[in-house]
Hints:
The chain is α+β, with helices and mostly antiparallel strands. It has helices spanning 2-20, 34-41, 45-48, 56-67, 69-78, 87-93, 105-116, 120-123, 160-181, 183-187, 190-205, 207-220, 256-261, 266-284, 318-332, 336-346, 355-370, 379-391, 402-418, 424-439, 441-459, 463-475, 486-521, 534-557; strands spanning 124-127, 133-134, 138-145, 150-156, 228-229, 242-246, 251-252, 287-288, 296-298, 305-307, 313-314, 528-529, 532-533.
Amino acid sequence: MRQSYLRFLRILEITRILVRYRLDEILYYLPLLKPYQAVLKLNPARWLVPEPEKSFGARLRLALEALGPTFIKLGQMLSTRRDLLPDDITRELAKLQDNVPPFPSVVAQQIIEQSLKRPIEELFAHIESEAAAAASIAQVHFGLLRDGREVAIKIRRPGLRRTIDQDLGILAWLAELAERYSQEGRRLRVRAVVAEYAKTLRGELDFLREAANASQLRRNFAHEPNLLYVPEVFWDFCSEEVLVMERIHGIQIGQIEALRAAGINFDQLSRQAAEIFFRQVFRDSFFHADMHPGNIFVDPNNGRFIAVDFGIMGSLDEASQHYLAENMVAFFNRDYRRVAEAHVEAGWVPADTNVQDFETAIRAIAEPVFEKPLNEISVAQLLLRLFQTTRHFQMQTQPQLLLLQKTLVNVEGIAREFNPSLNIWEIATPLLRDWLDRQRGPRAWWNKLRRHAPQWGLVLPEMPELLHDILLRAQQGQFHLPVENTELTEIRYELQRGLQRLALLISSVIVWMGLALIAAVEGALDTLILDLPLWLWLLLLPFAVWGGLRWVQTMFLGSNKTRR
């Protein structure tokens, strides 16, 4: 009850901010919420607040910043989805700021002591009272361990999880409404997108998970320390609310003049940015998904990249990796037929899609792009236009590609910032072809055999006995293949609910009829009907109808327990 009340208050707060920035019209895209429009028009704020001068995108950005971390992060994710939103809106969302005033250092020290269950003096020799950085999720203080090592201490904001859980619950509810009442919502798989976003955001709140992400990425590049450096995690000082890592000394990649003064080779830096991205995605299937300029530094001593903030990491399954690699190589070879076939094979467009029409549409977006010099072709923009085109062929949104698309936009922007003439295709194509060669042919077969051999060694000795048991049960007529159709299950459940409502309605009607009969006959309740008194009929009839409906439900629909 308390949670429902708090959610209701939060919905009122969201509505107030939407009205304040004159964004309440976005609520009316769902037919279910159209009646809400009449209620909001009675709000005095609509009469007292002057008409907004800013654009819709600017007002949306300001509203998201006012709504807090859940919506700021959502806006940052949507800023990369130019296949879904107009360019003017995505440009405004890209300006979203995640800088907020720091909370007091006294509160930060209390959180550290409560979370690590040790006095602050036993943990650190020194902690700087002023926060080095503050954002909506956490803030960072620099300090020293008792052995003298420099560290960065990341502390989660107090009370943040409760607010975010509440907001994510509201987003999930809106997503469910969007899919239930909007065909476009179902095509975009809004619930899956919100679920993926919720998983990512909740993972960002858990600093133990972030520490594990950092350790994994550090291990992936342990043999390439001159390409990417990941700070060491000090596990003895980490918890869900506190993360302690090695303090790094570097120059933010946005500080171009400082990098130039340090003698950094910009051409080498741009190539390294692209190479790091493709190695993470295709070699490791584990990539840093928040590579904005504030999280990437350059070591002035050797020019290598240094990454921080590992709360948002991405991972792709083999099917998604194949999709990307096949599409990129096919685009480079101008094999548009293969691009179209790859979409159908992956099941991302309907199986009955006309491949020839799809190929023609892809050629129309790619040919003008490839008329430019290769060093002017943007991989991110090409994939973006591909997603925009596939939308017309009913391609469903793939949540696992959202983080990758955002990361690719950031990485390409970083690489081109240091070398505008960089040919990213020249760097990507050899890596992609090598990865594809390792996924097919004799080399791939051998790698899979070597990977699965230990598991097969355990299973193979049991195979003769399992096969004999299956054949014996089949011979005795005991072998059954259960087949479950989820759509039929849903239909059956809806029929059950309808029958229950019908039973309740009939029971109510019978009660009212009984009351009417009693009122009509008044004292004649002893009147015999088929040798039974009227009062007995009034008692037995509801039970008889209820029992009959239960019998119909059991015979034709099964019990509620059959719904999984």
